[in-house]
Design brief:
Blueprint: E1 2-8, H1 12-27, E2 31-37, E3 53-56, E4 63-64, E5 67-68, H2 70-75, H3 79-88, E6 95-99, H4 102-111, E7 115-119, H5 132-145, E8 150-153, E9 184-188, H6 194-202, E10 208-213, E11 219-221, E12 224-228, H7 231-240, E13 243-247, H8 251-259, E14 262-266, H9 272-283, E15 288-289, H10 295-304, H11 316-324, H12 331-336
Length: 339
């Protein structure tokens, strides 16, 4: 099949899971063109294996100090360019897959091509526990942002719905050894104020922190090592570290849970998906949740935080089959993945 695969590049989680799925689709002989949007061109990294790919502006969510800035997000929207990008896509694809990427989804609607929504966000269209805010978001925003014909959704738990477990890339599997970097913690906080976070971490003596950020080369600031973004090196440090400080996304916490790492997470304020994820992670005892990253919260987590390892069953083969057969009923096979 000829597949257009849209990837929302606002966060690295969409890129990380798409990397796995796209690789498997190509192995099965499908022609995959990848469309990225939601990030400036200069901020992408490690895209070689996605070729051929296209980068468009799309929509970008703007956060400041760990909180969604609604006004700046709205002001950043360029609807004219968005419409132009949609109309540039031609009817040369058998199916469109969107990982919460709107240009590919609207192009599929315009061209009459079946569009599959793939990823964690689409679990909110099913009957799972949701706050009132998340119910509103799932009713309006999800359907409006990426119009779709069918979904392949994933979550930390199934909630007796047709939801896949998180899928984990091969490089993270069979990693049962004890952490090789004792008292060393991995930090991925793309939406927090970096300078403020480094100042807090510098006060936490006796521990080391590896902080991935948009630096050009590795920089040491007391007990904090700043590293440039790299999928390979990030995953190596995730395997070796003792725990993870992050926001309440989906893919990265799922990988940390699979590896048995303890997690301290802070949901982005005003982002319903992250607020929901934080509640579910706490309910399932997979993470410690905080409202703010403070010296006291981090030190308490280092001393008392617990990890709960979950070896999610392999779902990538079924996911690829679902893309190849978007109208087939896979409910019984999905349920078996949680046994």
């Amino acid at each position: 099949m000829n597949i257009l695969y849209g990837v929302n590049a606002t966060g690295n989680g969409h890129i990380s899971r798409s990397r796995i799925t796209i690789s498997e689709l190509k192995k099965r002989g499908h022609n995959v063109t990848v469309l990225f949007s939601g990030r400036k061109v200069e901020n992408f990294f490690d895209l070689e294996e996605f070729q051929p790919y296209i980068i468009k502006k799309g929509f970008t969510f703007v956060f400041k100090k760990g909180k969604l800035n609604v006004l700046r997000t709205l002001l950043n929207i360029d609807l004219i360019q968005f419409v132009r990008d949609v109309f540039k896509i031609k009817k040369e694809y058998d199916v469109v897959v969107t990982d919460f990427e709107p240009i590919s989804a609207y192009a599929a609607r315009k061209l009459g091509i079946h569009c599959i929504g793939i990823g964690h966000q689409y679990s909110f269209l099913q009957k799972i526990p949701k706050s009132f805010k998340m119910k509103l978001a799932s009713l309006f925003f999800l359907r409006f942002y990426t119009p779709i014909n069918s979904t392949i959704s994933s979550h930390f738990y199934h909630f007796n719905q047709n939801i896949l477990p998180p899928f984990i890339e091969n490089g993270l599997k069979n990693q049962d050894a004890e952490p090789t970097m004792k008292n060393t913690f991995l930090v991925y906080l793309a939406w927090e104020e970096q300078g403020q976070m480094i100042s807090i971490l510098n006060t936490i003596t006796g521990n080391e922190f590896i902080y991935y950020s948009s630096v050009d080369k590795e920089v040491q600031i007391a007990n904090v090592t700043l590293k440039p973004f790299s999928n390979k090196h990030f995953k190596e440090d995730l395997i070796a570290c003792n725990g993870l400080l992050t926001n309440a996304g989906f893919q990265l916490p799922a990988e940390a849970i699979y590896l048995g790492k303890k997690i301290l997470c802070k949901p982005l304020v005003g982002q319903p998906e992250q607020e929901h994820n934080a509640k579910i992670l706490k309910r399932l005892q997979h993470a410690t949740v905080c409202a703010e990253f403070t010296k006291e919260e981090i030190e308490m987590w280092i001393r008392n935080g617990k990890q709960k390892k979950e070896l999610y069953n392999e779902s990538i083969d079924l996911m690829v089959e679902m893309i190849e057969n978007p109208k087939k009923d896979f409910r019984s096979r999905i349920s078996k993945l949680w046994i």
